[in-house]
């Protein structure tokens, strides 16, 4: 990744894109899963597209802008504004005010970004401009999209979404519909479904499961990662790296572990060592589980595009996590995943109503989200599939170092795997890299320092 790359982006005036036909003006309530505090932030996505000679003379900005207006006829709540009612209940005012759209050009080619496209990206704040006043959660556009043409004929599609309206599966449905209409279809192949009442609290609400992720823990001084001298580092996990981690585990012929479980457990343990916590301090692993998965089986309609995510946590102490073999951490990760059932999801919705829609616990927590099956690398607006489609940053939210994304990736050798970006203070990162490399035996990546003022990534070499 060419992280020292610097380039100029020329943006046109921000405009609003509205549905191309009249749509219902109404108030639509979000679900009690949608409107929890932990989802009240903006999430970012980016896709990189090559020049396609078959599309010569066609402008991606114009095609996508027109397709957006048509897609919003079906997904008209996206063109509305979020309001907050009694008891902090969120709802969408479907008023057709539109989404924010930015047309831009950059004096750079796709090749200049390098072969290894993954977060952090150079000049990300230029490729996805934060329109002043637009990033607060309430009463602002729910979507901001910037399409940036490149010198080579390729382009970059970047998006910011108010997370309360959709999760990654819901956003993928919207972008798939946008892709289909960009390619000439009149309507999406999967019709969007609202039905947010399916994930509302029961009457009366009742908390029936243990939710370590929402336990109240005082956020005393020093309990959250300090924000001084922050650096990025991205690790690749392919077959060789996963095999190296598996070698640390006892062999049980009848016991199977997914790559997600193994990598998450390994990173959690290395992260805890690097943070140098007191041995008796509690630490949490929080797993993000999609309620649409077969193991949970919420039986939501195929076109449901709301949040169907559950955060599930397991708790231990830093001492136990570090002193025990990796299998100890792995067992906790597997339990966090297995905890999420239909009943667990309904219990979370009930908890939100009973306890005032709290944020999940962030104190000494490590949250992991698997986006390897998100599908963003498959969306075709007419120029084929992107060479990268996924998170625009290593992790979203306002708490650096808290969360990690597992992002699908193919390295320069053609090996299929995933990358995980991390963001820590420099000294913590040095210890973290040392712990990781002691097993992975990979010293090819070096941390990169972020210039907080400019937002441009500068090589530390």
Automatic annotation (TrEMBL):
One of its GO terms (molecular function) is acyltransferase activity, transferring groups other than amino-acyl groups. Pfam families: Transferase. Keywords: Acyltransferase, Transferase. Transmembrane segments: none annotated. Its EC number is 2.3.1.196. Gene3D superfamilies: Chloramphenicol acetyltransferase-like domain. It comes from the Eukaryota. It is an enzyme of class 2 (transferase). The keyword Transferase applies. Belongs to the plant acyltransferase family. PANTHER family: ACYL TRANSFERASE 4, OS05G0315700 PROTEIN. This is Benzyl alcohol O-benzoyltransferase.
